[in-house]
Amino acid sequence: MYKILKQEGMAKRAHFETVHGTVETPVFMNVGTVAAIKGAVATTDLHEIGTQIELSNTYHLHVRPGDQVVKKLGGLHKFMNWDRPILTDSGGFQVFSLSKLRKIKEEGVYFNSHIDGHKIFMGPEESMQIQSNLASTIAMAFDECPSSVADRKYVQDSVDRTTRWLARCKDEMARLNEKEDTLNPQQMLFGINQGAVYDDIRIAHAKEIAKMDLDGYAVGGLAVGESHEEMYRILDSVVPYLPADKPTYLMGVGTPANILEGVSRGVDFFDCVYPSRNGRHGHVYTNFGKLNLFNAKYELDSRPIEEGCQCPACRSYSRAYIRHLLKAKEMLGMRLCVLHNLYFYNTMMTEIRQALDEGHYEDYKQQKLERMAAGPKA
């Protein structure tokens, strides 16, 4: 059940009840593609840094270790020792990202595995079956994510097929949730709006999928090459046509600024690999912009990454020490940077929810953006 607690313009403060616990929104989902956050981060760490919901990927877990293996071990929650909600991406993004390894047909997509080249077929029914085996809290519908530079006819044909696939996903999930051996018979389904940068295609698609009365709705196919301005324009156009009484999820986005702007446009759920990927390369987020800890100026810097931060890295270690670990290629350096970045994102979401609760979100947003744009302190 989704309940809006406060609104400020289009921005929504809500909570979303699931079989694995309540998610307070707006929320950033911490990305653990293969049932683990890259950078040696454990699920026990996720509790410590305030993670509400984790995201894993259907295609990658199907390839390795195999969704049947995960089902035999009791589902993804037991497998990775995580007792809070999990959203599984459907494998649809891999239709985009593995474009050289796949063929799209009406029945589904034929892949060659990116690991060993073996043939894989995934359509709406297969994606739902895999996600049912994983027993995630929220399953994403199987879709195609067309390129932001694809021509109009291709995008329209792709979106029409995604709509047909969504109807098949809904039917298959209803069937699977009735089966006796289903691990999570209360699994939810989110549909995905597509349409590249064509506002009219996106709006028509939003109206069509809104009729299907799903558990939530995502805006997909953004942050894949279009400008930030185009992304915000599309959100301004599309979100008003998605059901206001269901959660809205902006897939694969983004930077702290993207998230702040997305909240203003009515988005509840976000996910992105930026905090973990950047952390593994020594790039860390602060309220005054990003730092690159490989820079020589931090060699003798005894301060934490950010003064006042309560993450595991900042509570105990200096910039100089973390830089040394990174330079020495010690895994602890990566781990500390990833923990700091995820803590930064999770804490920012807490601040966003608090600002919405108190009715001053736009003021908070402007101050946060101005501080981050000002750049790091000396």
Automatic annotation (TrEMBL):
The active site is at D89, D271. Substrate binds at D89, S90, G91, G92, F93, D143, Q194, G221. One of its GO terms (cellular component) is cytosol. The keyword Lipoprotein does not apply. Keywords: Glycosyltransferase, Metal-binding, Queuosine biosynthesis, Transferase, tRNA processing, Zinc. PANTHER family: QUEUINE TRNA-RIBOSYLTRANSFERASE. This is Queuine tRNA-ribosyltransferase. The gene is tgt.
